[in-house]
Amino acid sequence: MAVPLLDLRAQFDAIRDEVIPSLLAVVERQQFIMGDEVGRLEQAVAALCHARHGIACASGTDALWLSLKVLDLRPGDEVVTSPFTFFATAGAIWNAGGTPVFVDIDPATFNLDPEPVEAALTSRTRAIVPVHLYGQMAPMDRLLALAEGHGLAVIEDAAQAIGARRRVGGAWRMAGELGTTGAFSFFPSKNLGAWGDGGMIVTQDAARAERLRKLRTHGGAKQYHHEEVGTNSRLDTLQAAVLLAKLPHLAAWSEGRRRRAARYDEALAGVDGVRAPMVDPENEPIYHQYTVRAQRRDALKAHLAKLGIGCAVYYPTPLHLQPCFHDLGYRQGQFPQAECAAREVLSLPVYPELSDPLQDQVVDAVRSFYA
Predict the structure, then answer these.
(1) For residue 225, how many other CB atoms are within 10 A of its CB?
(2) Angle between the N-to-C axes of helices 60-69 and 88-95, in degrees from 0 to 180, rounded to the nearest 10
(3) What is residue 210's three-state secondary structure?
(4) Can you tell me the distance from the alpha carbon of 318 to that of 84, in angstroms, rounded to the nearest whole number?
(5) Is 154 helix (H, G, I), strand (E, B) or coil?
(6) Which residues of the chain have pLDDT under 70?
């Protein structure tokens, strides 16, 4: 029996009676742009993240770009981030007018390593963008200390990490809570996914939130009055309705993913050739992906595909080696940990609806490859 990497149909079947009436309510009102559901979602996500303000927007990419846009970056301003992440992280820096400065990752967690971050800071650095990759928070305590010491903004790329948390100073702090802003994605495959694109910014800063709301509607708070040049980045009311119906299930879905991950950890522990993902003991991840390191990764991926088992490589080419960033001057071998991860990582099915028998198929297939 085939095992998909993600089964959104199974999720829909479980919540059909909640989400369809929510959509019909919007259709009956015909209030498709900035309807009441958008504001309610902003409040709910902000509360989840222990943030004072939520600003919905059209995508996770826009959430990052708008967060960087309010920094008023000038030519030559630098923003430090990871080379091992989805392209939008660095693309948003570039499109906001900054220069991406890449540093290597922690090989255990795949997140930013604070030591090379500190070494990369210059008089031109304006911000740090840590990525909470695969649903596990970056070491925000150490990164925030660096940022505070140098007067820098911290933009949390939490696109894969809604609901993740980390112990900081002995207290649990949520993804998006601690940074200057936190940026989330509601792409359909995310743990909290819309039925199309969508994003959210959270912040503790009221003035920053007000400006972000203006920027997402062409730079003005009042129709036809524009204080600056913004863009059109509104979250559709229909998408907000879908997300509001899903949000009450998020904690249980995250716990389901953690159970699946624990089961993989145990089942794959004795398999020579595969290393389970490492969880920082200060973190409680949400396992947007369950990503192993695998010897002969590409051959394993082909083996699983032949057996009808979904898997994926996130991400095969580090950002410093992407052709569009050639002029930044990076070279092969400059970030060995990121490059090694790109050669070895493979993500296995970890969605909460995954049954024990289907997960056993995945484990058996991995074992058979390395037997």
Answers:
(1) 10
(2) 40
(3) helix
(4) 5
(5) strand
(6) none
Helix (H, G, I), strand (E, B) or coil at 31: coil
* Pair 352, 253: CB distance under 8 Å: yes
pLDDT for the residue 222? 86
**Distance, first Cα to last Cα, the chain:** 21
Residue 133 has a pLDDT of: 98
Q: What is the pLDDT of residue 19?
A: 96
Provide the CATH number for the domain around residue 195. Answer: 3.40.640.10
What's the CA dihedral at 87, 111, 209, 164 to 10 degrees?
120
- Contact assessment for residue 105 and residue 278, using Cβ atoms and an 8 Å cutoff: no
Helices 8-29, 237-246: axis angle to 10 degrees equals 130
This prediction has a pTM of 0.96
Q: How many structural domains compose the chain? A: 2
Residues 273-311 as b or e (16 or more Cβ within 10 Å = b): bbebbebbeebbbbbbbbbbbbeebeebbebbeeeebbb
Tell me how far apart the alpha carbons of residues 188 and 6 are, in angstroms, rounded to a whole number.
Answer: 10
For residue 191, the Cα-to-chain-centroid distance in whole angstroms is: 10
Phi, psi angle pair for 85, to nearest 5°: -165, 175
With a CB cutoff of 8 Å and minimum separation 6, the contacts of 229 are 218, 219
Planar angle of CA 343, 101, 312, nearest 5 degrees: 25
* 313-349 burial code (b ≥16 CB/10 A, e <16): bbbeebbbbeeebeeeebeeebbebbbbbbebbbbbb
Q: Are residues 36 and 177 in the same domain?
A: yes
Angle (CA) 50 51 55, round 5°: 135
Q: Does residue 46 sit within a domain?
A: yes
Q: Kindly list the distances between the CA atom of residue 229 and the CA atoms of 98, 209, 247, in Å, as whole numbers in the listed order.
A: 18, 16, 33
In a shared domain, residues 201 and 289: no
Please report the DSSP string for 221-236 in residue order: SBTTB-SS---B-PPB
Q: Where are the alpha helices (DSSP H) in the chain?
A: 8-29, 36-48, 60-69, 88-95, 114-120, 140-150, 206-215, 237-246, 250-268, 297-306, 336-344, 356-370
Name the domain boundary from 248, 282, 297: 248
Q: Which of 33, 41, 85 is nearest to 64 (CA)?
A: 85
